[in-house]
Amino acid sequence: MSELNLKQIIDKLNMEFTGEVRKLVFWYDANAEFSEDIDNLELINAKILHLESDNQFYTKYFLECVDTTTNYLIYAPFAKPAVRENHLADTIKYSKEFFADRASLLTLDLGIDERYKPVLQHYIKFFGEKKRTQAFYDLELETFNRNTIEIALMSVLCKCKTPSYEEVLRIVLTNAGFEENPYLDDFKRFDLLDAFWRHASDVFGYHDEKPTLEKMAMTMFATYAAKEIEADIPAAWKPFISFKSGNIIAFLDNLMNSYIYGERFDEISDMVSSSLKVAQEFAKLPLESYVACDIFSCVDEQLIHWMTERLELEDVSAKLGGQSILELIQFRSKTHFGRKRILEYHALENAWHLVSGSRYESSHSLRELVKQYTGSLYQMDQWYRLFYLYLDQMEDANGFEQLKELVENIYTNDYLAKISANWNEYFVPECNDMSMLDQSDFYRRKISGNSDQVVVIISDAFRYEVGMSLLENLKAENKCKEMTMQPMLSTLPSITEYGMAALLPHKELELTKDYEVLVDGQKTDTLQKRQTLLQSYKEHSKCFQYDAIWNLPVQELKTMFAWQDVVYIYHNQIDARGDKLNTENEVFKSCEEAVSEITKLIQRLTSANKSHFIVTADHGFLYKRNKLTESDKIGTSGSGTVTARRYLLSGDEISMEGVVSIPVNQTFHNGDERFVTCPVGVEVFKASSYGMNYVHGGCSPQEMIVPVLDVKTERGYKETTNAQIALVSLTTKITNLITSLDFVQTEAVSDVVKETVYRIYFVGENGEKISNEHLYTADKKETETVKRMFRLRFSFKNRKYSKAQKYYLVAYEDSSNLEVMRHEVMMDIAFADDFGF
């Protein structure tokens, strides 16, 4: 019982005990409603005597013989006995009886109209506990009627902070199962179960002689689906269709898109899907009729199956309901369940591009081929890489086996074999006439005459198409103000030792008798040797390994890089994984990681006051997923002083079918008359190697064309994002002039997520503000989501609201005035003027 109720009772009782004459007051509490409170009554001029059903005679003796002067309140936690069974009947005749009707006290205390007193009386058992009663008071209802009282009672039992039937239903559905639901048990205990189902009928149109949560969920999902299916709904669903589809759609949309409850929505959807036999029923309908349906996961399963079949048949122009495969992928990947199948959709998207671009048109010169490759053909390598990147992340990729074989066949036979042969057809006669930056000229052309302080990031095996992915990644960065990409031709053989040497400043590159590379007569096979050479050309310069600096504090990076004109950073993610047999199938994953690591490195070094970066590589690579067969291997018959899988080094030109011999001087420009021999296609030599499918060293665009990405950033820029907020409460209807809503800060504040101030309030459709405004600072640093939740209380203008108009909860970033949230609600508040009418 609230403290106010008790005060009313105490005041009333103390009035009874005024005066000099001794008084006895009997209080028969038929339902023991005040048994917990009786000892807390502070009576000024009386004592409390507890009457039990088996101590009536003693009580009579005590009052009339033992203590005949003290005023007493005789409290009995049971109904008054019949006269024949009541030994105190004659005592009561000269005493007084006290009546405390809890329902009356509640009505008076809360200012409830007397006509709703029977409603409180009906649920009086609920108010038998202090905690529940106080929680009811804490909801601070503005309007009292049967509906609002019942919703408030259910809200307390569900521990809702806002009196809302939608919130009650959300908790009932998301916090427990359909069977043995503890919330329904509580409703039954306090005689609220009928009210719960009545409100289900009023709000969502669900009515059943024997209602259950499962059938209610079936009604809601079937009704929602009926609005999204462009065909006659299954006959078995028709009994479940509700006429209140708008309320159902709003409720399920809020639940589905909730940051907190989305996963439980998926579980409920799967259970309902099984009960409604959705997959079987949809199989009877045209596939295009339910493309837009987004509340059952089986829709994406069937669409993915259809797309996969079309691509397996190379039917890239297939359409469904007027939408192409690519359009369907782009549409479904943004839907609720589509986002959960994003790996499949990404794999299909890249497969579609690769199958669509499978016709390779031969170029008629090396310059033309380079232009085509760096302009668009590199995307074939990118699509192939991304197809496997997403395929490898799937828990079950069995449904893609045939498509995988098609992708492999197109990429290997229709693209790689042809472009490699085309490249080698023109490489020897035209490689010095294709207007492409040569790796041996990198320092002279890109670094030597540069007046800026430059950070050069050399990523091992960072081939051209991966560089293009980095370019796209950096375009999304606010701090990158200028970027240019140009291709560069690596050394041949295209291997780490030679490529790293060519990128250093030098007057001469030469190969020893044993084919070791010397830069100005010195070896450069260690970081210290490279730094010594670099400093001989630029005094203020340094070399670092990426692994030694990537996680250093920004202040330490500032100190290390201060006053340095040139810094070389050596990054090794792709080659480190690809060159090992047990990890070579992770090479495409390592490409993504390399892009991410270099992006973050540029961000951190920008924060450390560096602003000019050049990203390049020593060489590229070739990778095919299918295991090599004997026909993919070329025997060497002992030819070559040095034998590797993609090249031979020898003093004389080697004449064999399927290979091309190229003078070392072709890319080293040092007069060396020895030869590099490479397969014309994508075959490999029979040689011992760490890897099988990942190779480099040969003569192909993928191995020899590397990126030179020149990036300029805003000095001192620190990449941060604002701490975001989201609405947790699933409220779609406002029924009180004072309403509390729950929100969550979606990410913890950190060095990259900054605290943000938001203005949050309600508006009408014309933009008029209709509530108080909260200035909330999202500054929570806790990693646990529950600790980042917060509640705001809104007070609405006391005026008439139209159910036909739209009202919104909005949130704006305070600094930029950018709208970040708009949540539509219905205003269903009984209007009261100053006189309470």
Structure overview:
This protein has 837 residues and is an alpha/beta fold. The chain has 30 helices and 33 strands. The strands form ten sheets. A seven-stranded mixed β-sheet has the order 7-9-23-14-8-13-12, sandwiched between helices. α11 (213-228) crosses α12 and α19 crosses α22. The protein is elongated. The two termini are 29 Å apart. The model is unreliable at 832-837 (pLDDT under 50).
Structure summarized in a few sentences:
The protein is an alpha/beta fold. It has 30 helices and 33 strands. Strand 2, helix 2 and strand 3 form a beta-alpha-beta unit.
Mean residue pLDDT: 91
Unreliable residue stretches: 832-837
SS content category: alpha/beta
Percentage of residues assigned to helices? 25-40%
Main sheet: which strands, in order across?
Answer: 7-9-23-14-8-13-12
Distance N to C terminus: 29 Å
Report Rg: 40 Å
Shape: elongated
Main sheet, how many strands, which sense, barrel? 7 strands, mixed
How many strand units?
Answer: 33
Provide the β-strand percentage band.
15-25%
* SS summary, helix count: 30
List keywords for this structure.
837 residues; alpha/beta; 7-stranded mixed beta sheet; 5-stranded mixed beta sheet; 30 helices
